[in-house]
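ok so heres the complex, two chains, lmk if somethin looks off
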Amino acid sequence: VKVIDGKGIASGIRERLQGEIRALAAHYKGAKPGLAIIQVGDREDSSLYVRMKQRAAEEVGMHFVLEKLPKDVRQMQLLNLIQQYNDDPKIHGILVQLPLPAHINERVITEAVDARKDVDGFNSANVGKLAKRDETPSFVPCTPKGVLHLIRSTGVDIAGKSAVVLGRSNIVGMPAAHLLMRENATVTVCHSKTTNVKEITRTADILVVAIGQAEYVRGDWVKPGAIVIDVGMNTIKDESKKSGSAVVGDVKYDEVAAVAGAITPVPGGVGPMTIAMLIENTVESAKLALSARLPPIEILPLDLKTPVPSDIEISSVQVPKSMKKLGEEVGLLDAEVDLYGKTKAKVSLEVLQRLGGRPDGKYVVVTGITPTPLGEGKSTTTIGLSQALCAHLGRLTFANVRQPSQGPTFGIKGGAAGGGYSQVIPMDEFNLHLTGDIHAVTAANNLLAAALDARIYHEGTQKDDALFNRLVPAKKGVRTFSDIQLRRLKRLGIDKTNPDDLTPEEKSRFARLDIDKSTITWNRVLDTNDRFLRKVTIGQAATEKGFERETGFDIAVASEIMAVLALTTDMADMRERFGRMVVASSKRGEPVTADDLGLTGALTVLMRDAIRPNLMQTLEGTPVFVHAGPFANIAHGNSSIIADRIALKLVGKDGFVVTEAGFGADIGMEKFFNIKCRYSGLQPNAVVLVATCRALKMHGGGPEVVAGQPLSDDYTKENLVLVKIGCANLQHHIRNAIKFGVPVVVGINVFSTDTDAEIELIRSMALEAGADAAIRCEHWARGGAGAADLAQAVIAASEKPSKFQFLYPLELSIEDKIRKIAQDIYGADDIVLEDKAKEKIVTYTKQGFAHLPICMAKTQYSISHDPELKGVPKGFVVPVRDIRASVGAGFLYPLLGAMPTIPGLPTRPCFFDVDLDIEHNRVLGLF
Amino acid sequence: VKVIDGKGIASGIRERLQGEIRALAAHYKGAKPGLAIIQVGDREDSSLYVRMKQRAAEEVGMHFVLEKLPKDVRQMQLLNLIQQYNDDPKIHGILVQLPLPAHINERVITEAVDARKDVDGFNSANVGKLAKRDETPSFVPCTPKGVLHLIRSTGVDIAGKSAVVLGRSNIVGMPAAHLLMRENATVTVCHSKTTNVKEITRTADILVVAIGQAEYVRGDWVKPGAIVIDVGMNTIKDESKKSGSAVVGDVKYDEVAAVAGAITPVPGGVGPMTIAMLIENTVESAKLALSARLPPIEILPLDLKTPVPSDIEISSVQVPKSMKKLGEEVGLLDAEVDLYGKTKAKVSLEVLQRLGGRPDGKYVVVTGITPTPLGEGKSTTTIGLSQALCAHLGRLTFANVRQPSQGPTFGIKGGAAGGGYSQVIPMDEFNLHLTGDIHAVTAANNLLAAALDARIYHEGTQKDDALFNRLVPAKKGVRTFSDIQLRRLKRLGIDKTNPDDLTPEEKSRFARLDIDKSTITWNRVLDTNDRFLRKVTIGQAATEKGFERETGFDIAVASEIMAVLALTTDMADMRERFGRMVVASSKRGEPVTADDLGLTGALTVLMRDAIRPNLMQTLEGTPVFVHAGPFANIAHGNSSIIADRIALKLVGKDGFVVTEAGFGADIGMEKFFNIKCRYSGLQPNAVVLVATCRALKMHGGGPEVVAGQPLSDDYTKENLVLVKIGCANLQHHIRNAIKFGVPVVVGINVFSTDTDAEIELIRSMALEAGADAAIRCEHWARGGAGAADLAQAVIAASEKPSKFQFLYPLELSIEDKIRKIAQDIYGADDIVLEDKAKEKIVTYTKQGFAHLPICMAKTQYSISHDPELKGVPKGFVVPVRDIRASVGAGFLYPLLGAMPTIPGLPTRPCFFDVDLDIEHNRVLGLF
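and the predicted structre for the whole thing:
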């Protein structure tokens, strides 16, 4: 008889696994398979098994966690713990040691373990898949898996053999029967109700015994030559042993060994295999998780119509995939995705820690020529290109775009979700509240504004002592500073922590921010196109008598809070930046910050959900992050760094992140490179510069376009002269992009009336200026398929080595930085600083802000500061009227003209057409 | 041999099911079991089976839907359709007819069917549960279930018998083997790889053949007397038949019938049973769904600490249950619950349709004595009582509360989530953005404000023609009115639809709202405590020159939009109300509405998510709806009608909905009855009136309380005199409640320093005034357990027949309605109308608003209009300074004093203490 050496086989397996674990760690920067065992109560046998598993896990070098819960733990608490490990990316296997105390429902617990971490294989979905012929369970229960291993170790061909399983437990008998059936044995399961067990076992070529009765199977029950696997482990009295007891199996070993062809001993047979299989299951689980193999992106089919219907019609007939599915497709864990309704989700920042070691994908920025009223389709290209890369060329791609302000949605603007067959869906959700980030910005901005005026009021109506005593109130007779007050003290150079120790002069300095009202730069904001709030007088009620002042409202996206959201890199950094925000100067000329006002923590709390990117999808079901939407003139006009960082990790090295920069390349792209990339440290791989033939014709001197009147023939018929002159604008932007060391691909959005000669002319002039390629695109009418050529060119361009560099070092003086941008990017002869700007340079330099990058606030309608100068203006000098500081966001913004910071509503705003189809809960008339 | 009459047995079953279906319809107001079959492509055999199933379903009187999809349908579309039926409460069984075309993954489809509607039983979770010994699948596959039925029909005792199953398919063989094993047979499964089939079948007492080969099993394969079930259905050539073919089973019938004890014929054996079992599975599924049997509410254990920690500490250590679980516990379908992060969800209004026929639960309103700075604990009692009813007395109970304004969160107020061990959790989510409803109110309110001023501006700067042409622009040369413009025309009595047909005078009337600026009642709002916005001048920028005007901001919850949200009954009603909102009068004295401004649809779209109630939970895991939070003085101060309606249906006739009304009973309760219940049509069953010993002492003349200074001995030591005098206030409110015909239970929130004699005095005085009961409560310190006695009293009171009546009929004049409230509720001698109020009565009566209910705007600090009059004032006359109209919300609000409509920030707002623990993403210092 062959004695099957379970111990030896198991030890071989564990050795192999140890090697695999080492290889994993080497490949995945120290990552280890992680096993969590939860033990409830302190049954001795359970403790013994757990200790054995722990020893084995630690021996092979796994990450091991043991959670011991008291035996009276509430089921809910156990479930919470399981959920915690389900969500923990460092844990690949979860085992709840059975049996559990009677008050806990074992079935509920077994089902609660994520099927993907159910290394015990006890969960119904895994059992069901084991039972079904064409499915594969995530895990097979350890003991029967070990049994099969041992049977195979004898070299027997299981197919067609008669196999008998004694016992039908969920843990051994039932799954063993299924495993044998999957191996094509003819299986009979015997159990306590079987009447003629002996007759049946005698037919078995393979006999698996798991019945829990000591030495139950005798020699004459076994067919000569059969393979006998003894799963039993029973303690019997044995006077011959010192302990008085011995461990035996369910098989009377000596008798059966005399008949069988092969047999497992007890102990040393199945026992060691169970633990080896537990380790193997966990290692397999870790391999799968670490490989980050993703399910293919399910592409939503487009039902292309001609003529192309309105954006909202196209959006509303497409059924978006569930956020859960999209999350899985892009490699997010369930715990990292928080749903906001059915079509939006917020993504946890913890992804960055989990994927820290993974290489980034390619990073592509979409920008445009100088905008015209004809539109160029930058957003549409961003979405269309990402649909092409992801849905048509198989590259996992995120489109990362800004959240649009809700104000203009009801005014005159088109949607910002792209258009035609290249859109973010559902576009109404995208264009309305989304997940409330802009509302949070509004709330935070206005809390700061209210606190600022209230502080001026309270300082103005109270004596030093009263003010100090109110700011540092006694609680149960004791005054203590809050953390934020201690920070202010430190800035003031007061090295005391006990309020009672301050001198009267120190109390006054601490309590009085002493704000110079004329220096206040902090406006209130609303996300509404409300022109009447451009300039207002506040504080006119009797209760604020004597404190009224002029101020204004901006649109919410113009708030520095929004700029911070876009430029921050994590929660701690955001809090830091909020605290640094300067809202005014004191009468002594020192900056007064949000931290001085006591608001750093409160602003952070108000923005703690907003900091997480919003996951949505394109019309073709590819992933989109919508996150932050700072104004593109007084701020930097780019979506968030955080979304880009997360997306770049998620797509991995073969994937792409396509993001859009606001306005023309002279504004959005310049700021993308010099501000956003500077703060993020990310390396852009390619620029996509969007142009249309029509817009180029306008730059070439084509006639003005008047709403409601038919387009001039110049735009609808071939006119190579206008195109050629207009292409100078395109060439200027191409050359600018190249200055940053990044390859440029031109995307030409074609209309049906554009001629081949026109397109070819644009193409050749683009190449002449140094573009890598210039490609015609039809994604508006055809979705991603219409941008597949563009996508190919972008892939090629982004494979070139990146030579990215900033335009200026931060050490340059404020004036020199402004001049550098004006000359190198706009082509100006020089700049001229008006008095106010000169003053500010002195102030900001004194206040220590001279090192900040520059965010030019200028018109988008010209490469110059003058909206009237089309094409490529020459021989102009850029006037700098004033300079302001967004110290929290981290830039200075010179004002080159009057920037409207809150739009108005036209005579007939588009809200006249907006309604809700109540029966179908569908928005009508939105673009 | 016994021939098993499958056809007859099946027909008996179908007859029984028909009866059961009739009984269901009778019991559940016409509800029927619903079966949806999805067939992809048009295979002939599939069409035949589907037709047979359809016929059977229709015969027994089921709701049947057949979806035929083209054979090239995309897998995603098929999945979307399955999801649609998963979500459809009228469908109880879903069957996707197999086989599917090759491009569709059958496994994915099978798994996509909700396990609770998987009447085919093919889904892994159901198969797994079938395979496991101690589990019960939702459904057993139809054919094997039928097979078992037929075996049982022979009267055999299956336990201990030898059963052989030929074939191991997922559809028949495998599940049949499991079923037989569950019946304690000893089962052997044979299949194509089995070498000695014949030998094995000869051992079978029960032989199930499902191998798909015509007449495979011969006479000598069968043990004499065995039961043979033939699942096969094969078409063979048969020259003797006219069709040239015959249908035979997998068993050679004549031969086997000669040996077997019982046998099924083909056809007429297993076939008819499959369909009967499909019907049975669907009926069982419907029974379960219709019974609305809910899983028990899992109670979250409290870890009570003394002294009671801060609210945020208590809230943040409790792990909330998942919204999915909570939704299931309260009987919501998955599709009706939209998650907003992990701890909040929005609930679909469709619940109301689904549960329309169900009786309402008991409806309890919590109100209080006249508020004092000492606090009475009304919110805490609302939550504590609901925890008691639901977690301790086993009555499904919703607490329905208002969403608090975020402004005061950062000012001085305590949280509104309750307190101590009776809270809504997580309280930081509750007190901050929640799901953005108030932000939506702000957006909608301010869009209307911006539109109003912009319209005045455009009317003021344009001639009639230009104005008309811009309002009705030509698109491709054609002018058309939008729907909302047609409504305005109709109101103007202009019966034309073609813009070109209007006379110049009609054009002018249409285009000019001609707003009288002095009559504008619509303010802008912010959800911030910003005192500087109480009175402002807007329109001071050069771009609005000549149009500046004085106005003010209110706190967002004071907006009429919020009042509409609270009082509306469904989406169509909300749109209606928004359109009706009056923002000013025209110079001709006609009301100017939101509909005139063109905003009805846009406002509805902005509020379409806000209209859905927000689901949260208490500290003990019982359900809470947080929805709408209208100001309690200039509006009616009650949470939403919609949330109450949904909750009353969800809890059903044995359950409770406990809601809270703002301020004292003279305000919140009066408005709850006269306004909210009038619009909802709901019948309140009990009033809970909350009092504390301390607050009563203050009403009895106790000394003022100064923040920061220790409480006077009067409040911390026994003082029966003060209590007794103060109880007059309590008695007054009790008597008021009784006037509405609703029983009153007094809840006395006790402090440790209250003496038994004091409590007993309060109790006896409450009973004297007519209260049903007066109960001491300790839910703040002990959670629901501390309010269990109160809950018992509430149950008893609410079982009394309700004699609810309004205080006044709507037909009374405005003046008389005001007088009625002042005299009957406040105890005033009379009212006196100041001139402005008299004017408004004339205007509103003329404008047709005299029939509206009255929402008194008065101080909460006295039963009278004068905050200084404590206790129960006598001999006063109520001055009515002015009257305003919230026509959309549906009430007139007389102003009895100066109401602050936007609070300010104190010198040291509580935001100084607020911060985020970044490592744990936990809010600190919030109350």
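quick notes: Chain A has a mean pLDDT of 94. thats all i got rn
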